[in-house]
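Trying the structure run again after the queue cleared.
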Amino acid sequence: MESCPWPSSDPLMIAYHDTEWGTPVHDDRKWFEFIVLDAFQAGLSWRTVLHKRENFRAAFDHFEPAVVARYREEKILELMQDAGIIRNQLKIRSAVINARAFMRVQEEFGSFDRYIWGFTGGKVAHSHLDDLTGMPACSKLSDLISKDLIKRGFKFAGSTIVYAFLQAAGVVNDHVTGCFRYKELIIQYPE
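Done. Tokens:
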């Protein structure tokens, strides 16, 4: 069975690719998880973040935005000591700021999911990439969403980070065209 080459031989990366990456998300908690994790990925590899994912999940109260939004200085300092996650103070603080902004979006739109899928009219954007050399780091869509998120108070929401969580959460299908997941997704979510 043909697959995208980026997971390499890492079992966790393969499982993530085969079952999760690029599958459309419609759950607000999962959206918040991707926003947090992709912000922590900035400047690092996804493999590094993925291998710490369960630690992040425990440290950030299972990515419940209402809980993370209430974190105070003591909790931030506690997270700075947690060797199981990436201990970057700016990224930790951005998770708290983003939880508050995320909740404002939920209040305005009814859900973050409704807000984010509104940018594509609820449709998956299929990229039709033959190989990884054509995979962009950002797009007009991620530029647009990034500007809007930043306007709404989100941090670590540049276009490259936004593009990464759009890929992860299935708004963008960047599986290569020969990959079995590409074929499954284009059948399930036609253009």
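The chain has a mean pLDDT of 96. Worth checking whether this holds up in the mutant runs.
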